[in-house]
Design brief:
This protein is α+β, with helices and mostly antiparallel strands and 369 residues long. An 8-stranded antiparallel sheet has the order 13-12-9-10-11-14-16-15, sandwiched between helices. It has a 4-stranded parallel sheet with strand order 3-2-1-4, with no helix packed on it. Strand 15 and strand 16 form a beta hairpin. The longest helix is centred in the C-terminal third of the chain and has 15 residues. It is globular. The protein starts with 5 loop residues before the first helix and ends with a helix.
């Protein structure tokens, strides 16, 4: 499979709505500010829906993208209501998540059905086993009242809700006592799973993009982890095990999944070679999608993406002179999730060699103080 952007290949105009509130908990701080991060994926002829809170930052992000050489639309609808898609029937949609609300406005029934199916982690495990794919040992339950023999379960393990929910974090449990305490955070009738922890040395994100005509590989990135939590994303990855996920990717595409989706794979070094363990499927854009697409469009060969906090709440107050991305050197900082500056956070891409990344990161941290 060739790796290229279906958006660039088809050349048709699009409307982007990457608001995350359709599948996250609205009360979580900053959730309404994520819609702007899709701006770096757009072309000048496209439209994008962005939350009106971010209109005050437009001049700053528009100027930044112009300086770093990233083509983008200036046609903004300052309203993220999914119903606004009906105002632009001739534009193909790019959506963060394709659920019931989205299907009501842009009817793609097969797409919505397969998203609902694979977005359930218990269904994901069942499908992986059916396709004879390598997944961790996982126990699936209709609810926590069905969980027995807690002392005999594999530890450490992860307790997860079958359907991802904002505010219901995946909880790592090292002991039976940890598991008992973690169960208190989940509702009685919520389907759950308990999954063994694998001794992975590397965690990868493998992204696909699907249209009616074809399924395309996008990019493999590597997670930066600290204490079992993802802290950033790096490219290039140390390996690209497409074969470990392709059977499920092709099955999902045949069933109707469209747009961008991703897999997480753990890499374990064993005596007879590397073992690639399929951990999850995300049937939508994820945190790796946005920096990956910007880097692909600008042909950046090496980069790091992270989120940072600071004392500024406006982009115009942050001095990027001398560290902003230079297209000639393919080195420097590009703002990705820029809308969260309203609450003092920024998602950025740092392009350059490992040495340059460290230097740029250190300087950025100074300027965010």
């Amino acid at each position: 499979m060739a790796i290229h952007s279906l958006h660039r290949f088809t050349g048709d105009r699009m409307i982007f709505n990457h608001d995350i509130l359709s599948c996250t908990r609205e009360a979580a701080a900053g959730n309404q500010l994520y819609s702007g991060r899709a701006l770096g994926m757009t072309s000048p002829d496209d439209l994008i829906q962005i939350h009106p809170l971010l209109e005050r930052e437009w001049d700053a992000i528009d100027g930044h993208y112009d300086r770093v050489g990233l083509p983008h639309t200036s046609q903004v609808v300052w309203d993220v209501a999914i119903d606004r898609l009906a105002d632009y029937p001739d534009l193909r949609e790019s959506l963060f998540f394709f659920g019931h609300k989205e299907n009501r406005v842009r009817s793609h029934n097969a797409w919505q059905r397969v998203v609902t199916y694979i977005n359930n982690r218990n269904h994901f495990v069942a499908l992986a086993k059916h396709l004879r794919m390598d997944v961790p040992h996982t126990l699936c339950f209709h609810g926590k009242q069905w969980i027995a023999g807690i002392g005999t379960l594999p530890y450490p393990c992860y307790l997860k809700s079958a359907v991802p929910l904002a505010g219901k974090r995946i909880r790592r449990c090292e002991t039976p006592s940890d598991l008992i305490q973690a169960l208190a955070f989940f509702d009685e009738i919520m389907p759950l799973q308990i999954q063994e922890e694998i001794p992975a040395d590397i965690y990868l994100n493998l992204q696909y993009e699907a249209s009616d005509e074809r399924l395309e590989r996008r990019q493999v990135t590597e997670y930066i982890t600290l204490e079992h939590i993802h802290r950033g994303i790096r490219f290039p990855a140390r390996c690209e095990p497409w074969g470990s996920v392709e059977p499920m990717a092709e099955w999902l595409w045949r069933e109707g999944l469209r747009g961008v989706f991703a897999f997480e794979v753990g890499v374990v070094e064993e005596v007879d070679g590397l073992r690639f363990i399929l951990l999850q499927c995300t049937p939508r854009y994820d945190n790796a999608s946005y920096p990956s697409e910007i880097a692909r469009r600008l042909q950046i060969p090496q980069w790091l993406a992270k989120e940072y906090s600071g004392n500024h709440d406006r982009l115009a107050d942050i001095d990027l002179s001398g560290i902003e991305y230079d297209p000639g050197r393919r080195s420097g900082i590009i703002l990705v999730n820029w809308g969260t500056i309203v609450i003092g956070r920024l998602g950025v891409l740092i392009a350059g060699s490992r040495i340059e990344q460290k230097r740029l990161e250190a300087e950025l941290l100074v300027r965010l103080r």
